[in-house]
Amino acid sequence: MHAIVSGAGVAGLALAGRLALDGWTVDVIERARAPRASGYLIDFFGPGFEAAERLGLLPALRARAESYGELRSVDAEGRVRGRLPISLVEQAVAGRYLTILRPRIVEALQASLPEGVRIRWGAQVETAHDDGARVQVLLSDGERLEGDVLVGADGVGSRVRQLLWGPHGQFVRPLADLLAVAWTGDDPELAADLGGRVAMQVELDRQLLVAPLEGSGVTGFAVLRGIPPARARAAIAGMGALGRRAVRGIREPYVDHVAQTVVEPWVRGRVVLLGDACAAVSLVAGQGASLAIAGAEKLAEELAWARHPHDVTVGLAAFERDWRPTVEREQARGRRAAAAFAPHTRLELEANRALWRAAAIPGVAHLVARAAGGVTKAS
Ligand SMILES: Cc1cc2nc3c(=O)[nH]c(=O)nc-3n(C[C@H](O)[C@H](O)[C@H](O)COP(=O)(O)OP(=O)(O)OC[C@H]3O[C@@H](n4cnc5c(N)ncnc54)[C@H](O)[C@@H]3O)c2cc1C
């Protein structure tokens, strides 16, 4: 059996690896010419953590994870207003949690790919035709492929979805007028001052997180409400001491509106969407990568037993039937998280500050840690 997967991201590589273990050959088509080095910090826990363990990926992920001692809440003057030991956040999820850069997840998935997977860099699907028994695909480099299934694991702006479902705008739902900005850079001075701790600042309609990376790197993540992309940098700098220092390191940032993808159905004949292409929960939910891996495992399980073209369409239908309820539940949680992220009123801001002050009280910190859910998307 042969799968054609558009997108060598988290979902695409997890699926390719698992299908190849079941004897499938897999062509992965990736638009980028090479793996991207830059990225953003991911809280990795939940269903994807469990799936990664079953897939034998945890050692490779752990080896590439970042390690922090403390999450600090700071104010506009740079004064520390609250502290939360990361060990408490980890305890809240029984140690089943990692903080890791997205490119390191992709690297770990790629490093563990078995024989039978071929990645075609710098190409994309130009046309796809499903004749009922096979899918014929023409690539942008002129090559033609034929497979039993075509998987669109090509992210929020999915090419496969655009070709076979329709224009982007129909499926992408911006949330709460939030803009996300994420970047990695080199800033030895800021990295040294952070000293293994994550700094977070929450203000009205904006939130900033800055963390050191191994060596002298620094990563930043800001969520801004009601700010157009062109004003993002100034808005972050305007947050005060941490913001002014953080923007020095911004190079080629990720800048996009916080959004979900809602697609119905996920399956058309022998073409299926996977991960953010159909099920983005929004980055403030801190579950997208986790769900991408868990969804990939689920899809691979449904396809594993396919020996005949008809089995594939049965497997795809079972995947959507069984996996959609989990995604819809997490999307509902994601909408609530977006509404609550970056406090919108003085009252919400004061409540957030009170929570951080409470974290200093012995016995209360573990409750705050549980409420935080993760480190990089805590608020
Ligand atoms: C700033 C930020 C912070 C986040 N934080 C978290 C977090 O804390 N926890 C968490 O679990 N998730 C988080 N997420 C979400 C997570 O990154 C995504 O949900 C996850 O990466 C989705 O995986 P995917 O494989 O579906 O898509 P992606 O990882 O986006 O991969 C898609 C792949 O398809 C490729 N591609 C795109 N277009 C084409 C094309 N035309 N042809 C071929 N290939 C193409 C891309 O280059 C990419 O390699 C965050 C996201 C952002 C942006």
Please characterize this protein's 3D structure.
The chain contains 14 helices and 18 strands. The chain is elongated, with a radius of gyration of 21 Å. 38% of the residues lie in helices and 28% in strands. Helix 2 packs across helix 11. It has helices at residues 10-21, 47-54, 58-63, 86-92, 102-111, 159-164, 188-194, 232-237, 241-247, 276-279, 288-304, 309-340, 346-358, 365-372; strands at 2-6, 25-30, 41-45, 70-74, 80-85, 97-101, 117-121, 125-130, 135-139, 144-147, 149-152, 172-186, 197-203, 206-212, 217-225, 254-261, 267-268, 271-273. It is an alpha/beta fold and 379 residues long. The mean pLDDT is 92. The chain starts with a strand and ends in a 7-residue tail after the last helix. It folds into 2 domains: 2-64 and 99-172 and 259-338, 3-Layer(bba) Sandwich (FAD/NAD(P)-binding domain), CATH 3.50.50.60; 70-97 and 175-257 and 342-372, 2-Layer Sandwich (D-Amino Acid Oxidase, Chain A, domain 2). Strand 14 (206-212) and strand 15 form a beta hairpin. The strands form 4 sheets. It has a 7-stranded mixed sheet with strand order 5-4-13-14-15-12-16, with helices on both faces. Strands 7-2-1-11-18-17 form a 6-stranded mixed sheet. The structure holds flavin-adenine dinucleotide.
Structure characteristics:
379 residues, alpha/beta, FAD/NAD(P)-binding domain, 7-stranded mixed beta sheet, 14 helices, 28% strand, binds flavin-adenine dinucleotide
